[in-house]
Specification:
8 helices, alpha+beta, 15% strand, Aldolase_II/adducin_N, Class II aldolase/adducin family protein, Aldolase_II/adducin_N_sf, eight-stranded mixed beta sheet, lyase, metal-binding
Length: 224
């Protein structure tokens, strides 16, 4: 790959990250403050990361960082430096992950604050890659070794999960690219809202046995 091709690829990834951020705001799944951090993998050793607040995000706001925590291009405030290790941990644990998104989506965060796994009881969660409960990572100060070890442990114990709840903090979601990861953030937040609403009318009900296979067959039939 020539240097021109490499610059073009980085520019394209930056625009994909900005677009994912915009879609999250349009979907109404962001916290009042607009705090979040999004990243996209560039290669085996680098990823692109947003600043701590992403409302009105622009490509030039992004920084390129290494998995070992070095800022290679751009600038990050100290509030963002703390979360490099969290994103790096996911990329190291899941080589096929291409994007990581952390939000304080209100309903999902309610489950995180309650230390309650979020059940998979809505079809969008099945369709967008979270066909199991979203596990809770024990609390630790943001970016600390305790917090990062908790994320890694959760990924080890739940090897097919595409999301975790950070206790007393928020939501962490990962997927193949920024668009798909943002879709799953929205699906999880909608599911959390539905769970909370269903509690007022008797409680949510699990899918029937074999629901995932049925959904996958339906998707394959349309795609064929």
């Amino acid at each position: 790959m020539t240097s021109t091709d490499a610059r073009r690829e980085i520019r394209d990834e930056a625009h994909r990250l900005v677009e994912a951020s915009r879609r999250l705001f349009e979907a109404g799944v962001m916290s009042h403050s607009g705090h979040a951090n999004l990243s996209v993998r560039l290669d085996a050793e680098r990823f692109m990361l947003t600043p701590g607040f992403v409302r009105g995000l622009r490509p030039e706001d992004l920084a390129t960082v290494s998995l070992d925590g070095q800022v290679l291009e751009g600038e990050l405030q100290s509030v963002s430096m703390e979360i490099i290790a969290m994103h790096s941990a996911v990329y190291r644990a899941r080589p096929r992950v291409g994007s990581v998104i952390h939000t304080h989506s209100p309903s999902a965060t309610a489950f995180a604050v309650a230390h309650r796994p979020l059940p998979c009881r809505t079809e969008p969660m099945l369709r967008f890659g979270q066909a199991e409960d979203v596990p809770v990572v024990p609390w630790g100060p943001r970016g600390s070794d305790v917090s990062v070890r908790g994320v890694v442990d959760a990924l080890t114990h739940s090897p097919t999960t595409a999301a975790v709840l950070l206790a007393n903090h928020g939501l962490l979601v990962f997927g193949p690219d920024p668009a798909d990861t943002a879709h799953l953030v929205v699906a999880i937040e909608e599911s959390a809202e539905a769970e909370l609403a269903a509690a007022a009318i008797g409680g949510a009900v699990d899918f029937p046995e074999g629901a995932l296979e049925t959904v996958r067959a339906s998707i394959a039939r349309v795609a064929s």
